[in-house]
Design a protein that fits this description.
Chain B: GO terms for molecular function: ER retention sequence binding. Chain B: It comes from Macleaya cordata (Five-seeded plume-poppy). The structure holds 2 protein chains of 2 kinds. Chain A contains no helices and no strands. Chain A is mostly loops. Chain B has one domain. Classes of the chains: A little secondary structure, B mainly alpha.
């Protein structure tokens, strides 16, 4: 899983 | 994407459109903090570094382009447009950027999820966005007569943040996710900064009075 948070948010 | 997230993005978009409408149509930026606008331009520039290398969706790319384009064009209008810039309250808008930028950058160097250039810049943009509204709030407090569009702009920005918190709560329960402390805490701080403004905004709305923040 991608450790960095919420990269799909703006 | 859930409904809170979409509503949040649309509120954010509306806030930017309200501000551009004011500046472009009325040719006035009275009551708008250039410092806050420059901070937002920096926030988007550092957050969307991967805009052309990491594709998420057309929606995502389009919105990023809109936020980058609008924030830089607002700064351009306020600094360069020969009519708009005359209405800028330079003497009132005295907040120092560096007092916000430097601590946020240092914090991002220390507290981040991964020590890489892009990740530190992304974290920096989150910290900076949390406090970027401060020069605008200070300016509102100094301005005796806050016009409707400026009041609505700040209200919509605060609304966008509140909806993002609902979005995170929703995501927490519906997705397999880590506890995203950095995003959550900086987002929470950012939303709390609007609490005072919201109080006076609703108060003036309820009593049908002009919005005025106490000194």
């Amino acid at each position: 899983t991608e450790p960095s948070a919420f990269k799909d948010e703006l | 994407m859930n409904i809170f997230r979409l509503a949040g993005d649309m509120t954010h978009l509306a806030s930017v459109l309200v501000l551009l409408l004011k500046i472009h149509t009325i040719k006035s930026c009275a009551g708008v903090s250039l410092k806050t606008q420059e901070l937002y331009a920096l926030v988007f520039a550092t957050r969307y570094l991967d805009i052309f290398t990491h594709f998420i969706s057309i929606y995502n790319t389009l919105m990023k382009l809109i936020f980058l384009g609008s924030s830089f064009s607002i700064v351009w209008y306020m600094r360069r447009h020969k009519i708009v810039r005359r209405s800028y309250d330079k003497e009132q808008d005295t907040f120092r950027h560096l007092f916000l930028i430097l601590p946020c950058f240092l914090l991002a160097l220390v507290i981040n999820e991964r020590f890489t250039f892009k990740e530190v810049m992304w974290t920096f943009s989150l910290y900076l966005e949390a406090v970027a509204i401060l020069p605008q709030l200070v300016l509102l407090q100094r301005t005796r007569n806050i016009d409707n569009l400026t009041g609505q702009y700040v209200f919509l920005l605060g609304g966008y943040r509140a909806l993002y918190i609902l979005n995170w709560i929703y995501r927490y329960f519906t997705e397999q996710h880590f506890v995203h402390w950095i995003t959550w805490i900086s987002g929470l701080v950012q939303t709390l900064l609007y609490a005072d403004f919201f109080y006076y905004y609703f108060h003036s709305w309820k009593n049908n009075e002009k919005l005025q923040l106490p000194a």
